[in-house]
Structure formats: C-alpha cells, structure tokens
Amino acid sequence: MTTSFKIAILGGDGIGPEVVAEGVKVLRAVEAMLTGLRFDLIEHSVGAGEFLRSGDPLPSATLERLKDADAILLGAMGLPSVRWPSGVEMTPQIDLREQLDLFNGVRPIQLYHESHTPLKGYGGPHGRPIDFVIIRENCEGLFSERLTPRPAGRDFETDTMKITRRGAERICREAFQLALNRRKHCTLVDKANVLPSMAFFRKIFDEVARDFPTVTTDHVYVDAMALFLVQRPESFDVMVTENMFGDILSDLGAGIIGGMGLAPSADLGDTYGLFQPSHGTAPTIAGQGIANPVATILSVALMLEWLDHPETRRGARFITDAVSRVLANPDHRTTDLGGKTTTTQMGNLVCQALT
Ligand code: ATP
Predict the structure, then answer these.
(1) Which of 23, 44, 77, 227 has the lowest tally of Cβ within 10 angstroms?
(2) 279 in ligand 1 pocket by Cβ < 6 Å?
(3) Nearest CA owner, ligand 1 atom 26
(4) What is the mean pLDDT of each run of 10 residues along the chain (355 residues)?
C-alpha cells in the first residue's frame, strides 16, 4: 500500500523559486529511496509577484487550498519595491503564520563545518559544537498589532508587545517538550527587567517549567543573549522567546553558523506545518543561480520529520546525513561561503550524497 502526502509548494519571490527547486529535487530523490510513499506536489503563486498579477499577495482561494495540504514548503516572499501604501513591505509569510495559527517557530542553529563560522574555536574534531534551537512565538509579541488600521497624519506611531497567557503557555510547552528530546535545558529570552509584558512571559515560563522537572532552565535578557551567542553559543540547547526577539536572534544564530543560506525553519501549529529557509528573498542575488539552497533542503528534512511517518523520518535522516557529507568537503561552497558552487550544483551534490 502506498501512503501519499500532499505538499503545497510556494516558491514566492526573489531567490525563493530557485532554492525551492533544489528542495523539490532532493525531496523527489528521497522519495525514490523510501518504501510505499508518494509526494503529490501542488504549486501555488503567493507573494509580491502574485500581488502584481492579481492585486492580492495571498488570495483567499489559495489559502483554502493550502489548508488541504499535509504540509507547505515555502521559498521566500516580499520585494522591497512592492509595498503597501503605508510603506511596509507585503509579508504574506507572516500573514500565513497568523491565519494558519502557526505559533511555533522552530529555528535549528547547527554548525556543519568549522570553516563556516566567523567565531574562533568552534566546529571540527577539536572545536566546540554549535547546536541549539530557537523557539520563536510567531503569532503575537511585538508583531501583534502590525495590521491594525491607524489614523493617518498622526505625529506618532506605536506597536504593542502583546503576550497572552494562552500564547505564552503554549509556546513554552513546545520549547520544554523539544528540550526533553535534546539536552534537557531550556532558556527563556526576555526583557523582564524593563517590560511588564516580558515579566508576565517569565511568570508563565516558570509555571510551565514545573511540569518538566527533568529540564533545567535559565533566564537571559535579550541584549545579553546577543552577547552570549557570540561568546558561548555552545552553552545553549533550546531557547524560547517572543516574536520580534526571535526574528532578530534567528539572524544572529544564522550568522554564527555561516549565514542565512544554512538556516532552516519550521512554522508549526496544532493542525498545519509550513517549512521554509530562515532567509528572505535576497533580491540582490536573485536570478543569478548563486543562492545557497541548503537552508531550504534542511527545511525539507524538518518537514519529513514533522510528517511523522516511519519512512518520512528515515527520509529526513537521509537528507541531514547527505548535507553533512557534502559540507564536510571544503570544495563544496556556494558564494555566500566563499566558494563557486552554484545553486543547482549544490542541490545535485546533496542528491548524489543520499545513501
Ligand atoms: P527579509 O526582510 O525578508 O528577511 P532581507 O533582505 O532582510 O529579507 P535576506 O533576504 O534574508 O534578508 O538576506 C540577508 C543577507 O543574506 C543578504 O545579503 C542576502 O544576499 C544573504 N542571503 C540570504 N539568503 C541567502 C542564500 N540562500 N544564499 C546566499 N545568500 C543569502
């Protein structure tokens, strides 16, 4: 009997379609290695390009079709030249998180090769490893009122840091659950010394911690975390934080393992799962065939893990092992890592390394 999974494919804008093509190539290669499994891939147009075509970056008919899929693979969305009248860019990827209630932003930060990191003494046989996961609350925090209509012509604007008990509790539970399956340490990143919303978040984190007595915890202010991620990233296992802090720390995390082209992500809810590289559309390198597809390929591995079938979990391991093997060879480097490997060549290398 064959089990089939329906996967929605959203290439999006900029380098999105280029990196997604490599992710799909690897997915197809893995599918051929698995037993009794089929992936039905359905492409949809969403993003700034779709806005220019139809006037809506995320048509409601498309959103409904996404709800039919077992998982969503997304490239990147938005272009600096395509903006709403208010001046902000279109961000259908954020809209999707809110509309599908993908509250749990999972951003694994793992160093694959010592030559990728700008930090000294990390990676390789004798260096310290970098291997932690940022859990970003995706549906509230400082992004919560970004779509609230504002009166025109005011001499001020405000954004609200909204933390609800439900939102904080469910994201902390996800973080602790993940820590249980890792090195059993969970760090809350907040700004509880200054912001009442963050003191509230801390109170709930501490309450949830009592349900996970085998997980050790600490609290780190977000400004200190920016320092510690450079000084001692090896000391972290799972960290949980609000939306905007998670957004910023994800880029810092990517920076210490070699850049945005190596950082995958999963946006998960109770019903839906969306997988995408942590990077944006990188318009300055789009169309040149030089974008690093590894973040997208690793996002495909996260998707297979999440689909939670014995064969998809096996497929996820095939991909992460293949990526490790490819990146172990210093000749295999895209331009962001100082090499000459093209986007397509990197996808081919990962396919060849699948065993
Ligand atoms: P967003 O606001 O959507 O996050 P951004 O333009 O601020 O987008 P990115 O698109 O993530 O940020 O790009 C940040 C930097 O990383 C740019 O210099 C970009 O060229 C580079 N970059 C991002 N993704 C890749 C990739 N896959 N391969 C190579 N370089 C990348």
Answers:
(1) 227
(2) yes
(3) 261
(4) 95 97 98 97 96 93 96 96 84 89 98 96 94 97 88 91 98 98 98 97 98 98 98 98 98 98 98 97 97 98 97 98 97 97 98 95
